[in-house]
Amino acid sequence: MRQFGQLLKNKLAMTLAPNYLCPLCQQALLLTDKTYRCENNHSFDQAKQGYVNLLPVQFKHSKAPGDNKSMVIARRAFLDKGFYQPLVDKMLTLYQQYGQLDEPLLDAGCGEGFYSHQHKTATNQVYGVDIAKETIKIAAKRYQNCHFSVGTLSKLSFADNYFSWLTSVYAPILETEFTRVLNQGGYLLTVTPAQQHLYELKELIYHNASEHDVTKTPISNLTLISEERLTYPMCFNNSDDVLNLLAMTPFAFKASNELIEQLKSTQEFSCQADFILRLYQK
Ligand SMILES: C[S@@+](CC[C@H](N)C(=O)[O-])C[C@H]1O[C@@H](n2cnc3c(N)ncnc32)[C@H](O)[C@@H]1O
Ligand SMILES: [Zn+2]
Q1: Which residue's CA is the nearest one to ligand 1's atom 5?
Q2: Which end of the chain offers a freer environment for a tag, N or C, measured as fewer CB atoms within 10 Å?
Q3: Are 206 and 256 contacting, i.e. CB atoms less than 8 angstroms apart?
Q4: What is the C-alpha separation between 219 and 251, in angstroms, rounded?
Q5: Which residues of the chain have pLDDT under 70?
Q6: pLDDT tens by residue, 90-138
Q7: Bridge partners for 150 per DSSP
Q8: pLDDT at 215
């Protein structure tokens, strides 16, 4: 009987409809026949991959905001190889140590869902929001047990105090909005580059490569609970991995054609992964 209860709980967590607010009038959205609708009759269709686009045109600053398709494809190919798995493992250790594993979690600026889906437990609801439709499309297609939406982090379509855990990996950190959707006692985990992150790759591009500036943190009102640095070498013996890594970075645009050709014939390359994980509490 107890086993059946647990099975039912698991099934419910898998199938519970997501709780979104209408981005236009902030009323609750109800899902019926693959359409989300609020009481003011604003409606948003569920795409065939299962995500919903909650970014009205008037909120867009460009036609296709966020990362473009080639960056998205490069990031997925790179992450699939497991080069950043030690980072996920650290994030999950913190989640297991401090988090409420059956409460809603948001991955803010989730990209293609690599970090979001690894936080899915038997009973929590995992949401991923990103402004780039191309990345949400592939996230939703692959990770069907999470809820993905296209939206902006500066105006999240969720009720106040809805989440007990927020993750932000290499994405914009908007403290006011993140604080609004976090419940009292809830946590925000940010992952940002530490000094030496991809330094060897940067050196190939810039004559005077500089270290990342880690002194600035965009958080001032939440309480810092822990700060950890994670550093490890990544060794590549396949030029595609290095090219994908480069394509994921903001300095890809600075790489000359000559350098790209050089990387294509690279047999071996190694560089540092260097992250700072900061855990804050509301
Ligand atoms: C460097 S990527 C990181 C993606 C993912 N967290 C990861 O580490 O694989 C930054 C992400 O933030 C998204 N982004 C940038 N500005 C945003 C905004 N205002 N609202 C929502 N997402 C945004 C981009 O589209 C992109 O997917
Ligand atoms: Zn509405």
Answers
A1: 111
A2: N
A3: no
A4: 25
A5: 1-15, 60, 62-66
A6: 999 999 999 999 999 999 999 999 999 999 999 999 999 999 999 999 9
A7: 53, 130
A8: 80
Residue 189: its pLDDT value, please? 98
Question: How many folded domains does the chain comprise?
Answer: 1
Residue 45 lies in a domain: no
Nearest to 111 by CA among 185, 172, 56: 172
Q: How far is the CA of 139 from the centre of ligand 1 (A)?
A: 13
Residue 19 lies in a domain: no
CATH number at residue 263: 3.40.50.150
CA dist., res. 111 & res. 82, Å (int)? 16
Q: What is the pLDDT of residue 216?
A: 77
- One-letter identity of residue 163: F
| Mutate which of 170, 173, 197 for ligand 1 pocket (most atoms within 8 A of beta carbon) | 170
Q: Determine which residue's CA is closest to atom 13 belonging to ligand 1.
A: 109
| Alpha carbons 216 and 172: distance in angstroms, whole number | 13
CB-ligand 1 contact for 64 (6 Å cutoff):
no
Q: Per the domain annotation, does 53 fall within a domain?
A: no
Degrees (nearest 5) of the Cα angle 220, 176, 96? 75
* Per-residue confidence (pLDDT) for residue 208, from 0 to 100: 82
Element (DSSP H or E) covering residue 135: helix 133-142
Q: Is 130 in the pocket of ligand 1 (CB under 6 A)?
A: yes
Instruction: Give the environment of ion ligand 2: residues with CB less than 5 A.
Output: 22, 24-25, 38, 40, 42
For residue 62, the CA-to-ligand 2 centroid distance in Å is: 23
Q: Let me know if residue 196 belongs to a domain.
A: yes
- Domain assignment of residue 157, given as a range: 63-281
Q: Roughly what angle, to the nearest 10 degrees, separates helices 239-248 and 257-264?
A: 150
